[in-house]
Amino acid sequence: MKDLTEKQKTFARGVFEGLSQREAYKKAYDCATKKDKTVDALASRLLSNVKVKEYLEELNKEAESPLVLTKQERLEWLSRVVRTPLHEVDDHSDLCQELTETSGPNGCSTKIKMPSKLGAIAELNKMTGAYAPEKVETKVEHSFSSLLKGLPAAPLVPPPAGS
Predict the structure, then answer these.
(1) Which of 5, 38, 130, 131 is the residue whose CA sits 20 to 30 A from 143?
(2) What angle do CA 75, 83, 94 make, to 5 degrees?
(3) Could you give phi then psi for residue 160, rounded to 5 degrees?
């Protein structure tokens, strides 16, 4: 879609990928000084934008391909990574990430590697929003009152003539 900005596309992709409107908006825009209530209102307004809606519809149509995993299918696959014991995975399993066969004096050996269980849990947590937002602390070097004290006592503009 040509008429959308990259930030609008990033927002729409975030919503499409399952982020909340707030999370998607924060991913696309700088919201360091905005309250969540403000971000929610901005995200809601952006989601009602006709061009953003059309872009989301395009993303949904592309995802309807049988070759693309749905969000539910991805969640289920990652859950199987976590729950499936290694001895149940063979070279025909979709959980087999790598297969190494070696032969030596003691015969043949097969090594099967599957995706990381911790990595799968981390990805599931991201997809389901299980992580709390990270806190960012800022250090203020000067207080407002100290800045006011630094201003000159006399007005910068001379008073009008005749005063």
Answers:
(1) 38
(2) 65
(3) -60, 150
131-138, Cβ contacts within 8 angstroms, sequence gap of 24 or more: 136/32
Exposed/middle/buried for residue 78 (C-beta within 10 Å: 0-12, 13-18, 19+): buried
Which has the closest alpha carbon to 77: 57, 97, 59, 60? 97
The pLDDT tens digits for 19-45 are: 889 999 999 999 999 999 999 999 999
- Model-wide pTM > 0.70: no
CA distance 55 to 28: 15
CB 96 within 8 A of CB 89: yes
